[in-house]
Amino acid sequence: MSKKTIGVIVAVALAAIGTFIIVRYVQGADSRALEGEETVSVLVVSSPIPSGTAAEDMSKDVTVELVPVKVQAPGSLGSVDDLNNLEDLVTSIDLLPGEQVIEARFVTPQVLDELDDIVVPDGLLEVTLSLSPERAVGGVLRPGDEVAVFASFESFTVDILDPTVEQGATPEADPGAEPDTGTLPETTKTPNTTSIILHNVLVTMVQVEELPQDTSSDDTDPSDANLELSPTGNLLVTLAMDPTNAERFVFTAEFGTVWLADESETVDDSPTPIQDRAAVYEEPLAEVEG
């Protein structure tokens, strides 16, 4: 065997060894990155999954991966068994590679049909908020419903300058003095308030973190058979509204609390007074005094 042939063989062998070392290093990178982190298993989408795909048909399109607990998505599934437990449910939207598989992304085929029938008017934004069932009509809201939005705010401190002092004015006796910025009164706090801020807001999607569980037994009172079960987890309610109202809605969600009320066509949508404790007791007190 010639020296040239031996050199080629040695070069190929060295290249193969180098490739093997690089591959092993890359494979171990994830493990090194997770050292010292508390991890959890989650299902991750490995190939595109179209809307309407049955949960039990998704196993070939997902993988189980370890991720730090701090990046685990709320309601994420941890195994294919969890996926198979979502019997008779389908994906409500397209799922893309790399995203975690979340239970709230699954709905019944009937609900998916309702979603397909919803047409969001031009010029509206869709905004989603997580709400406990009692804040969302017990969890019975459906796409296509219209709701009123209540905004509640706790008391907060406000700074009010003395209105008798002209702001930014410089005393005539001392032209070099700093402008007077007014005099602050004692701490002023607003009352707790509640008011309807929006009417006839279109519901475009409702997702639940945990589906209702039927715990009834054979000896359940037949009179209770028609009771509707409420969800056991929060609901993700998506509403459509114009940009200005979307800002008001998000501000309330960030700094206050939101309640939704199912709204019929006959509800009077005239402006109502902002409610505080004094307003709530005003009419009863008037009756007592009368």
Per-chain topology:
Blueprint: H1 3-33, E1 39-45, E2 62-68, H2 80-84, E3 90-91, E4 106-107, H3 109-117, E5 125-131, E6 146-153, E7 157-158, E8 188-189, E9 193-208, E10 235-241, H4 243-255, E11 257-262, H5 277-289
Radius of gyration: 30 Å
Number of strands: 11
- Total of DSSP H or I helical runs spanning 4+ residues: 5
Strand count, sense and barrel status of the largest sheet are: 5 strands, antiparallel
Mean pLDDT: 77
Shape: globular
Low-confidence stretches at least 5 residues in length (pLDDT < 50)?
Answer: 222-228
Helix-strand category: alpha+beta
Top keywords for this entry?
290 residues; alpha+beta; Type Iii Antifreeze Protein Isoform Hplc 12; five-stranded antiparallel sheet; 5 helices; 23% strand; globular
Question: Would you mind describing this structure in some detail?
Answer:
This protein is of the alpha+beta class and 290 residues long. Among the domains are: 37-107, Type Iii Antifreeze Protein Isoform Hplc 12 (Alpha-Beta Complex), CATH 3.90.1210; 118-155 and 190-214 and 226-290, no CATH class. It is 24% helix and 23% strand. It has five helices and eleven strands; from the N terminus they run αββαββαββββββαβα. The protein has helices at residues 3-33, 80-84, 109-117, 243-255, 277-289, and strands spanning 39-45, 62-68, 90-91, 106-107, 125-131, 146-153, 157-158, 188-189, 193-208, 235-241, 257-262. A five-stranded antiparallel beta sheet has the order 5-10-9-6-11, covered by helices on one side. Strands 1-2 form a two-stranded antiparallel ribbon. The protein is globular. The termini are far apart. The model is unreliable at 222-228 (pLDDT under 50).
